[in-house]
Design brief:
The longest helix has 28 residues. The protein is about 70% helix and about 0% strand. By secondary structure, it is an all-alpha fold. The two termini are about 35 Å apart. The protein has one domain: Orthogonal Bundle (Farnesyl Diphosphate Synthase). The mean pLDDT is about 95. It contains 15 helices and 2 strands. The protein is globular and about 60 Å long. The protein has a two-stranded antiparallel sheet with strand order 1-2.
């Protein structure tokens, strides 16, 4: 008799608790100040989406008793430490005031400390990942390189002659989707799956990452679960797929909206901008992109071991589309 959904959920919960304990032990150091700063964002919680994806994908090997659970936990911790380190760095670059509803680390301790704490977390991730072997560390290093290059591409903006929408998708692919793809890949590695299945699940995670990030951009226009006020990207002048589609269309009737989108939207104009965006066809075009990426991810699951793990991964594809419904 196969594993039930309830048994799989209980297993996921138990493994998630192990990840949390390992995350905090990874930040332990004799230097009390460094430890305090390192656990600052970790203690604020977050969705833990990336380590959860490592666990869920690894669950594909549970019924065949192929899961290397200790390696799986370490891989999940490496992925989350890498993600958290990137948040310390991103907040400095973005001059963010808040992260998860609390003052950003650089607001508390200054830019230099925030950057160095991010570096410390990356060092801890390397220390945990090294025993997992060369294949793991090579892919982790490649992922980190893609993440950094995505951030650089976002900072520089598109080169002359480069389509801003293609550039935007390239940024998301590197800055966000690459690490989610790595999370799925590592889960597959420690589920004991075949080489072809590992590659397929890497593609699954990357496509899912694209869907979730594009959905986040849409939620910034309509509000929702992000824990930030609608219009944050507009106020900061951050391009999103929706605003880039509007700028490319250059419809005469969008003259006022294009004027507002020419730079960061002032607080006094935010309600007007959000109202104009809510009625714009570009919003549905962006939603369709989310659905397409979610369906691409779903297609990768065909032929994988059936059972509660696969159903959980299918539900992740559903949730990406549901967020923008």
């Amino acid at each position: 008799m196969g594993l039930t959904d309830e048994q799989f959920s209980a297993w996921l919960s138990a493994q998630s608790n192990r990840v949390e304990q390992r995350l905090r032990s990874a930040c332990h150091t004799p230097d009390n100040f460094v430890e305090e700063a390192a656990v600052y964002l970790i203690d604020q919680g977050g969705k833990r989406f990336r380590p959860a994806l490592v666990l869920a994908v690894a669950g594909l090997g549970l019924e065949a008793d192929r899961v290397d659970q200790d390696a799986m936990i370490d891989a999940a911790v490496v992925v989350e430490l890498t993600h958290v380190a990137s948040l310390y760095h991103d907040d400095v670059m973005d001059e963010a005031e808040l992260r998860r509803g609390a003052p950003a680390a650089h607001q508390r301790w200054g830019n230099s400390v925030a950057i160095l704490v991010g570096d410390f977390l990356l060092a801890q991730a390397s220390q945990i990942g090294a025993p997992l072997g060369e294949a793991f560390m090579v892919y982790q290093a490649q992922t980190l390189a893609r993440l950094v290059q995505g951030q650089i591409a976002e900072t520089r903006g598109p080169d002359n002659g480069v389509d801003p929408i293609e550039h935007h998708l390239h940024v998301i692919s590197g800055k966000t989707a690459s690490l989610i793809g790595a999370a799925a890949r590592f889960g597959a590695m420690y589920a004991g799956l075949s080489a072809d299945q590992i590659e397929t699940l890497t593609t699954f995670g990357t496509s899912l990452g694209m869907a979730f990030q594009l959905a986040d951009d849409l939620l910034d226009i309509g509000g929702g679960e992000l824990g930030k006020r609608p219009g944050t990207d507009l106020r900061e002048g951050v391009p999103t797929l929706t605003t880039l589609l509007i700028k490319r269309a250059k419809r005469p009737e969008d003259a006022r909206l294009l004027e507002l989108l020419a730079g960061p939207v002032a607080d006094a104009d935010l309600t007007e901008a959000l109202g104009l965006l809510a009625d714009h066809p570009a919003l549905e075009q962006a939603r369709e992109q989310v659905r397409q990426w979610a369906e691409a991810a779903r297609g990768c699951l065909l032929g994988l071991p059936e059972g509660p793990a696969q159903r959980a991964l299918q539900q992740l594809c559903d949730s990406a589309a549901d967020r923008i419904a």
